[in-house]
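Worked Example 4.2. Consider the chain below.
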Amino acid sequence: MSQKRKAPYGSWKSPVTSDLIVSGSIGLVQPTLSGSDVFWLESRPVEKGRNVLVRQKPDGSRSDLTPVPYNVRTRVHEYGGAPFIICGEDILFSHFADQRLYKLDNSGVILPMTPVADVRYADGVYDRRRFRVICVREDHTTASKEPVNSIVSINIEGEDPGSVIVEGSDFYAAPRISPDGHRLAWLSWNHPNMPWDGTEIWVGTFNAEGGLEEKTLVAGGPEESVIQPEWSPDGVLHFISDRTGWWNLYQWREGNLRALCPMDADFGQPQWVFGMSSYDFVSQDRIICTWFENGFSKLGLLDLKSESLERIESAYTRIEGIRASGGQAIFLAATASSSTAIISYDPATRESVYIRRSSELPIDPGFISAPQAVEFPTGNGLTAHAFFYPPRNNDYEGPEDERPPLLVMSHGGPTAATTPLLKLGIQYWTSRGFAVLDVNYGGSTGYGRAYRDRLKGQWGIVDVADCVNGAKFLAGQGLVDGDRMAITGGSAGGYTTLCALTFHQVFKAGASHYGVSDLEALDIDTHKFEARYTQSLVGPYPASKALYLERSPIHHTDRLSAPVIFFQGLDDKIVPPNQSEMMVDALRAKGLPVAYVTFEGEQHGFRQADNIRRALDGEFYFYSRIFGFEPADQIEPVPIDNFPG
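Applying the procedure from the previous section yields the following structure tokens:
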């Protein structure tokens, strides 16, 4: 065994390059079973982020179903999700460029199914009895101030804009038809709630014309989040509710509600996109499900007769997208040392088979840093959660008198969570000598509603304090260099980053990826789905305008003393470019080192290979200049204003 070379942290040569990350990785979304075939979406950075529908047959043969230029992606709620529906031998999908629904028949012919209009569709289900699709529609052609959301039926035999069958609420999701085809369940909610605040599950009965009558409120309300309605094979409605403070499973039979295996654990997660699934039926009496424990995903089989939950031992640290049919299950899963993959699971034999991996590139385990769940004290005598990744490189170690620089990661959402799966974007840093703290600040999910609600009215306070206190905790333990700590985040995580750099003096540098800098501008200029989100995170506007100004970094640049690099998609409708540009201009005027990198054709998040590569390498280059170490590889420089040389 060769002896490790001593070299300054940050200067280590690593096999985990940005080229490897973008060329060898794809995104995997929405695994679906239809008969013996498995379908899924692949997001391919090397194809400029195009989403391709893929099918694998029982013999293992695999084929792309949607050729160039089709991009299977919907913009309902801007975040999308569930953009395709399997309809017997045909498939309906949303094409990103025009948001029309197209039908792909079994001969490979693709034809438009909805007219040209500023209308979007998502989260559909096939109504076999009536030869139609029922889905969520978001109509931007109305005279209303906001687009109008509804549930519509679409005839799959000809061009049809859709006929409304449910309307009146601000938002809809998850229309699900009972196995006998007689009833429809769906989710709805209204401003100012987000789906993790308060939703309702309804059930209606189809009449002879295909409309709905006898509509019944099953569960939910303004302060109860109910999600993922699903019918069992024998026609009993199930769903997830947080009425006890935890997202647990429930059954609704003949008007009566029953909790299934109540636990202090979250079986659900925030419904940012359509089609999310954390349980399904492998038989009439058994559910395969996943839940969170201390940030780690667990897998189990729930027996509905005995109400007993059997844990399935596995190395998976992240599980989502569970679907089951014919006694088989598929889901997305990852471990601390392997990237996300589509897994086929047989509950009878307990055998797992990998169908498709997001990365097939082998990486020596000696360059992989394993996540360590940490808890640390934070504000108001509370405890916060994070995952710590120490530096790791098989060939290098740091000098004995040096501690590694720290990169604190603040996830987006903010109502979301980071999870302990293999993320090559984290290993990029740790294999070069950085320590990483991936923070699940107060407001994150997976730790119950009380933890999630810590952020209500406290955005820009609680999340920032948790990131700051997590960094201080590690420095106090002697695990990192307290004088070389940086913070990074995208979207809401970018806002937390900018607040931490503005209102605290702990971090010496930071990176904002399409981050919020002006809460007032965000409230005034954002899309419908999040149009009232800040009301629960900050306060009602304009009544709480003073709070919006107080917590907006753009109004306090006089307190900012750390260099910042900004990355921004120029087509971002969720956090428009002016949010970054205002901060960049202020930092330039103040004389602080600042860099601004923009990407044409990118929206909220970067999908194109060249841009993903540029953002990762650009951020590393920026820190190398600020912290004064020399990267092992040649990196394209990023112009830094107000920086010598």
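The chain has a mean pLDDT of 95. The chain is about 15% helix and 35% strand. Compare this with Example 4.1 before moving on.
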